Amino acid sequence: MRPVSGNVSSALAAVIVALLCLFATGGQGQVQAPAAAVAPAQTESAAPAASENQPIDTLPRKYVDLWNTGDFDQFKPFFSPFFMTSHGPRVMVDGAMLMRVITAWRKSMPDLTFKIEDTVIQGDKVAMRLTLSATYKSVLFPFTTPPAPTDPPRTIRAGEMLLFRIKDGKIAEIWEQYDELVMRQQMGGSWKLPATSTPSTKVSAKPTPPASKP
After folding, report:
1. 167 exposure class (CB count in 10 Å sphere: 0-12, 13-18, 19+)
2. Is 100 a domain residue?
3. What is the dihedral of CA 149, 151, 157, 158, to 10 degrees?
4. CB 187 within 8 A of CB 144
5. Among 120, 13, 136, 116, residue whose Cα is nearest residue 65
6. Which domain holds residue 81?
7. Is 14 a domain residue?
8. Is the four-CA dihedral 22, 27, 30, 34 of positive or negative sign?
9. Of 6, 24, 93, 179, which alpha carbon lies 20 to 30 A from 53's?
10. Each residue's pLDDT tens digit, 59-112
11. How many domains would you assign to the chain?
């Protein structure tokens, strides 16, 4: 084999360098391609969550907290008049009425506490089972006995069921059922009826004999 001359060696070296540069350029293109493909995924993962709505039982829990604290200022941003059905016809409850009722209950039982025992959610409705505990201080219900200063503290315990309907981020309706009779008994309830006027006609002690037939 004949030895390769200097000119040929220089030309061969130039060709090898050119090929290496070409391969290097192609390799960089292959490395950059995956980086470009990854960019959209990184942007998508940084996007905020699709839903930022609060759980549907948030307002019912705030309603219970309102009874436990009497702090209506914290509830005002979430309040709007709602319908209430409790021991009677369905009525519209506004802020003034609700605060009168809560104030009366908390005056009678300053440490009034409702504890949420169970919560069931179905669609736009939230059902809650609660237990009430409090110390009786002054009359709440008619025909109950006010506690005397010398009496031992009367502990009031009762159960309650609440059913909320939520609409447009507000409480739209509440159905309520609580152990009022149990509470009245614990408060020293007397079961006498209010006095009524004396009837104008008297009932004969003996039945009137039927009229004789003609």
Report:
1. exposed
2. yes
3. -80
4. yes
5. 116
6. 58-186
7. no
8. negative
9. 93
10. 999 999 999 999 999 899 889 999 999 988 999 999 999 999 999 999 999 999
11. 1
